[in-house]
Amino acid sequence: MSSDIKKQQSFLHGSVILIAATVIAKIIGAVYRIPLTNLLDSDGMGYYSTAYDLYVPMYSIAMAGLPIAISRMVAEYVTKSRYKDVTKTLHAAQVIFLVTGSVAFALLILLAFLSTGRLTFTIFGYNVGSFFESFNSNTLIPILAIAPSILFCCLMSAYRGYFEGLGNMTPTGVSEVIEASGKLLFGYTLA
Known about the structure:
The protein is an all-alpha fold. It has one domain. 80% of the residues lie in helices and 2% in strands. The protein has a two-stranded antiparallel ribbon. Strand 1 and strand 2 form a beta hairpin. Helix 1 packs parallel to helix 7 and helix 2 packs across helix 6. The longest helix has 37 residues.
């Protein structure tokens, strides 16, 4: 078999793995979300939504395309047989994502205390806490519960980018399913 055909088959195989994992993760998400709405009352869903609304932008900013950059760098180094650079890239990604995840985690904790009125301060005469007046003080615990996942998801993304760069989509697919399963397990347990 020519190398072009092997690359196409490898790409197709990786795509099938990612599609299957995404479908499974979405099914798990539906299994999670629909009963959770019934399990929690409207107040509980409000707290959940508030926590999630603070979490998602923080998560998006923390991730900001870095896994794709890692994947490209790793793929380039593998193509050139620069395996020491592949290892260096993984280690650098781990450090970058640890720092990024830690900063996002700390900011989310700060936002949790600001949004619940437990922490207030003034910048240039403006009370920062007044921005969050519509938030309920009961949202503190849901926000604090979800905050550590930013750190772990950032570290997981370093590995996703690394394995995708190696052309191995299985760890990415498995991690998506594990992430959705963890969300299901912890969501129901903590609800």
